[in-house]
Amino acid sequence: MSADDATTGTANTDDGTAGITSAGDATTATSAALLDTAKAWRDQDPDDESRAELDSLISAAEAGDTAATNDLESRFSARLAFGTAGLRGELGAGSNRMNRVLVSQAAAGFAQFLLTENTSAGTALGQTPSIVIGYDGRKNSEVFARDTAEIMAGAGVRAILLPRRLPTPVLAFAVRHLDVSAGVMVTASHNPAADNGYKVYLGGLDHGSQIVSPVDGKIAAQIDRVALGSVLDLPRSTEFETAGEDVLDEYVRLTAALAGGGKAPASENAPASEKAPALENGPASENTPTSDTAPVSVVYTAMHGVGWETARRVFVDAGFGEPTVVTEQIEPDAAFPTVSFPNPEEPGALDLAFARAREVNAELIIANDPDADRLAIAIPAPGTDTGWRRLSGNEVGSILGWRAAERQQASDLGGTLAASIVSSPALRAIAREYNLDYSDTLTGFKWISRVGGLAYGYEEALGYLVDPSKVRDKDGISAAIDFLTLVSELKAAGKTVGDHLNDFAAKFGAFSSSQISLRVQDLSDIPRIMANLRMHLPASVGSIRVDSIDDFAEGFGAYPPGDILRFWLDGGARIIVRPSGTEPKLKVYIDASSSRIGTPTERYAEADAVVAELDAGMRALIS
After folding, report:
1. What's in the keyword line of the UniProt record (predicted)?
2. Mean per-residue pLDDT for 467-483?
3. Is pLDDT above 70 for 24?
4. Which is the catalytic residue, given 50, 141, 189, 594?
5. 120 is annotated as an active-site residue
């Protein structure tokens, strides 16, 4: 075929004869179809801002503006996928953005799922399904939540809206506490300010966990059917309920009770099989820490999110009083003005907390992410530039896991400790030491929360579940009160968190981790890098030999297919490579341990050295 042939194609004319269509004609037809799609979306959009946004782009594209046409293609060439994380994406007009049209379609599709899939939705046949809806402080979160409530009510679903912007763990708790069929939380958690999301939970036999396959596919199919029409034709009703303060009160009561060293009684509305008895060493008073604790000077930041109101009440009701706050970050602010990314893991995110802690000579920093489902901890580090060190998610997860194992042993309850496959192997060592069951899961609390007999679960991305009888999702406020109680107990015994980490290394071995997070501008770079790794599997990373490789592409063991590579190396170290599920990143997780004879310091040094070599080797492989 010549170059000229490559720019033309055949098409049927009106009379059925073959005609010639130029590439220019095809482009014109494509542009016209794109404009028609954009206009149809605009005409059903109830939001003045995004409708004006589309109007401007359409006018510019019609005038021949290539950038405007490319922008429209970006917005309409795909649809923001509904999956096991629900929806999450950049705010803006179009099917590939988060906006009122897309959310209305999602709400109507989810409503149809709840009305037609009774057993999947945890609703008995013949009963009206129900849903509780929460929202955080991001742009349009409340608008999206109210749209969802009105559409659910209009479809015949009993809809309950939380009274104001509240943390994700409160919504997850409300699904169980109110014994409803489902829950929706409007949040993008720690994503950039330009994003928002739609997180979906199921009650009934799912016990308030996030949705997983095949339910996500069933909901997506219903959403696709709704999207064939206009959202302006969807029935709406303002006859939805607003939850009372008792939901938040009960969450606060049960969370504060953790400070007593035991597990608080489950909510009365939790399934009987999920309720756990209070431990024998439980709180002497629901509002007072046990006698073997000492006051701790704490600095707290909400990272411009919704955690402060709830966290403050929990701290006070647990008997610890109000912490010193990072004033610039304590109130919800959708612009997140003091941080590049509102994620405590990101470099610089805790700088203001470090500064405040130095001012007041604090002993501990507690940080929640914007929807307070994650927890970051920092401890004093004399001699460093900031004077503080943020503990890794694996360090906090291991310490809280040790604490959970001791609780289970003291109560003689048994149970299972669980972590995502990319989290440190330390939790498995804890479970083995305490004769508890252990389970690895795929990443995400939608999997961790479903482990049978779960006593404690965590993932390295600052997510911890310390009280599964109350909530089945990561909970940064419950984890904060559990960690604060531990620090208070250590102080009463004359110890620090650093001492406790050394005690951990002496008992279980020293575990070291690092993570490479490669952010990309072009999402196609991620499958390209993964494909290249599969084509050129390394025999060694740095100077350390690769013993075996697990490729999850076709499924591995009990795990379903996934874009994951796991390397096992000489000496027991491990590397896992996978795309992020929520951000345009490729992630590499590196873990090593040392339990040889030696001091904790020597053990940590040995494990750290292995991790450092593997980290450098992997950066070279994926660059």
Report:
1. Isomerase, Magnesium, Metal-binding, Phosphoprotein
2. 97
3. no
4. 189
5. no
